[in-house]
Amino acid sequence: MQNKGLIKFFAILFALVSIYQLSFTFVASKVKNDAKSFANGDSEKEVKYLDSIGKEKVFNLGFTNFTFNEVSDKQINKGLDLEGGINVILQISVKDILKGLSNNSKNPVFNKSLADATANKKGNQTYLDAFFDAFDANSNGTVKLASPDIFANRSLQGEGGVDFQMTDAQVKKIISRKVDESVESAFGVLRKRIDKFGVTQPNIQKLGNSGQILVELPGAKDVDRIKKLLQSTAQLEFWETYKIEEIGNFIMAANESLKKTEIKTTEVKPVVKDSLSALLADAKDTAVAKKGNNPLLDKIIAQGGGPVLGLFSPKDTAVINGYFKRADIRILLAGDQRYAKFVWGITSTIKDEKGKAVDAVELYALRGNRDNIPAMSGGVVTDAKDTFDQLGKPAVSMQMDGQGAKSWEELTGRAYTQKSNIAIVLDDVVYSAPGVSSGPISGGRSEISGAFDVTQTKDLANVLRAGKLPAAADIVQSEVVGPSLGQEAIDNGTNSAILGLFIVSLWMMIYYGKAGWFANIALAVNLLFLFGILASIGAVLTLPGIAGIVLTMGTAVDANIIIYERAKEELRAGRTLEEAIKTSYSWRGAMSSITDANVTHILTGAVLFIFGSGPIKGFATTLLIGIITSLFTSIFIARIFIDWNINRKNDLTFVTKFSKNIFTNFHFNFLGMKKWTYLISICIVIISFTSLAINGLDEGTDFVGGRTFQIRFEKPIETETVKAELEKVFDGSAEVKVFGSDNQLKITTKYKVQEPGIQADEEVNKLLFENLKQHYSAGLTYDKFVNAYDGKKVGILQASKVGPTVAEDIKTNAYWAVLGAMAIVFLYLMISYRKWQYSLGAIAAVAHDVIFVLGIYSLCYKFMPFGMEIDQHFIAAILTVIGYSMNDTVIVFDRVREYLAGKTKGTFAEIVNQSINTTMSRTINTSLTMIVVLLIMFVFGGESIRGFIFAMLIGIIVGTYSSLFIATPILVDTISKEDKEKVEITHKEA
């Protein structure tokens, strides 16, 4: 080996750098454990402790010191599946941005294009591109984007803006830039909010130019609070309100009109005695007061007063909103009331007639106008602080600028004179609607009070200070993981990694003896380098990432196996140990096979990295780094010890008594079996396609959208019971499966997954709690059921949501990833082997493997005791199978190419058969180490990745079969008769 000293120098330097980088992870972990001990389960106390020592020196290397914040920045970060917390993807509404840029244009072509873009957006297409396509189709050249009533409006004119003379292509560039600026503005606002929220090491990043923003909050536990914080647009407005006596006649008339379409004769409900029902009591038609005869009024659960029209149950708000949007109801509003805007207040808890605590929400009617503009906008607010009102209750005080102070004085003066109320509205929710009893308020200071707690006022002040979002931000994908579940994942991953390392190391020693020890040392160094690189690049370690590390231990010895097997062959051919080592490490020896196998593997890993997201990207990261470090340690580190052994004149045989005669003089007619293997594989493909057509696949929420909950109970529970209970409240959409132990369920539903905003999320959580709490002992509250906390054992341990548009993007990415990986590998092999027949054989084998795995999943998902969903994890498994199947195939093909170009005697089929037989030890050993580590991961890796590992396990097994019985026979059958005769003539002459 040339430059041995230089390699040793770099290896030692790399090892020292890796240890240095990993030291930060150990120090950070120790400090965090101290914080947990100090907080004793209080997450807020834990965060405050870590914040307080952020600038303190916690790591002294003698020549330099590091603060806790610096140490945290350099550690290996754990993903949410290991740390716990919440991960969301927010979709900034490009539709709202375009409306704003057009000044809410009424142009029919423009608005139809907005609607068409929403309906027809293709997977992986941005909304803006979909809008441009729709506008081109709808306008057909008759309407320009630079029209005065679209984008050539006053607000977009001027330098860098839109003028009337511009073409659509020019306007598109400007609008694209303006949209990017708005998303950037949203990104900045969200970062300000998150920085003040109080979690350690939050992560926020834009996802390409899709208008999507990824937010990760490790360790965050209050789910509903976080979603409110992220989704609030902070659109603060001040509206004048109607009083109940002013709007009461409309409510009466609406109730009468609704009776014609909504009343059910079997419905019997008591009429609540509130101010509205009192109005009704004076009506001439006393029949209206009969129980169950009031579609609108029967839904009132408590009386209102002043600006509050009544209190309703949150579950009825959607129905009532639908009533007020109906044209036949709106027409009942007289005069200026026709512009009235009906909005809800914040949810509070009240006592019903039986004294039971129930949720209630207040209904308000705001004094609207033709342009739907509030009396005052919240843009005048310059500062906001959480404080306490005169009664000592939590509130938020606001300070306005000069213009705002003047407008506020006018507005409060008018309210004082008219004895009316001013509603303080944030994102179409009324937080308070105070009256003005002491005259106009000067100075621009105001206060928001209501049924708040201290946490709510802190968040509200935070949102107002950070500023408003330029458009609505909807959570299109989310995942919530409890810290206890994360600890279980760490334990499972650690156990499987240790056991996998032990088994692989033991096998290498049993099979290769002393040389196996050298491979094991290289494996240990490989793991050090791998973790060192992960720490240095700031990678996030996820559970699939741990699986990638365990797989790396299987692949790390592959190169050693190929080299050792070649060395054994050279020794059997009578060469000296030095000659055998030199040959096996040469391009003519093992290097060509190692290069081709790993390049194909790297290509599929790169595709996985590009198209994957979240944990899957973490898997791809560890896999790619592991391939590179494995190559370095297998080729150079193990070689250093081998050369050291040779220099000491020690014997090295690469075999033990156990393995000495295994696969020696192995002769099997692989090509003679091709008729049977073709028949078997054709039957498998037919069965797979038949099952796919009849049974389909169990597509996960990643591909079809939906909500998934992992819920643990105190004792075993029947899935059918839970399914029947939830189907009643989720409109028939509830799939319930046992997940791991029989007291843990995986519940999937599409109920309201398309509805934006946090209200739908909260409704689903509350419906889950209300319908499942009967299966728990008394004392389980909604907060304990939904939110995460240290030591949580029951309730929702993990929850995820994937919106339908994101699901379509993921599915599109998955198709392109698989097809792209196969195309790239086909091209590489064709270039490397210079014959398309090699590529065809390899791709046919890979396609066979993919179809086989899909067929198994289609046939078995209904009765297997673990999840077999087709999701991002499954696609990662398929791409990994493609890589490893190629690995096996390349080992065989490389020997075939060598023998066909060499002097081996025999017919074409005999030469190819001999090629396959001489690679059996390599093929079986490389596959066996992979199968062993996958089995370990399958048994000990945890329920959440069992289906993912199973796909790889089946794929590796069938991939080994296809390399021997599909790829090579196809290669032989597609080579022309003339080429075969040329080879046979050459070998006879040799």
From TrEMBL:
Encoding gene (name): secDF
Protein name: Multifunctional fusion protein
UniProt cross-references to PANTHER family, sorted A to Z: PROTEIN TRANSLOCASE SUBUNIT SECD (PTHR30081:SF1), PROTEIN-EXPORT MEMBRANE PROTEIN SEC (PTHR30081)
Organism: Flavobacterium pygoscelis
Keywords: Cell membrane, Membrane, Protein transport, Translocation, Transmembrane, Transmembrane helix, Transport
Gene3D superfamilies per UniProt: 3.30.1360.200, 3.30.70.3220, Multidrug efflux transporter AcrB transmembrane domain (1.20.1640.10)
Its biological purpose: Part of the Sec protein translocase complex. Interacts with the SecYEG preprotein conducting channel. SecDF uses the proton motive force (PMF) to complete protein translocation after the ATP-dependent function of SecA.
Start and end residues of each SecDF P1 head subdomain domain: 374-471
Transmembrane segments: 493-510, 517-540, 585-611, 623-642, 676-694, 814-831, 838-859, 874-893, 924-942, 948-972
Keyword Transport set for record: yes
Subcellular location: Cell membrane
GO molecular function, one term: protein-transporting ATPase activity
Keyword Protein transport among UniProt keywords: yes
Lineage: Bacteria, Pseudomonadati, Bacteroidota, Flavobacteriia, Flavobacteriales
Subunit annotation: Forms a complex with SecD. Part of the essential Sec protein translocation apparatus which comprises SecA, SecYEG and auxiliary proteins SecDF. Other proteins may also be involved.
Protein translocase subunit SecDF P1 domain residues: 184-240
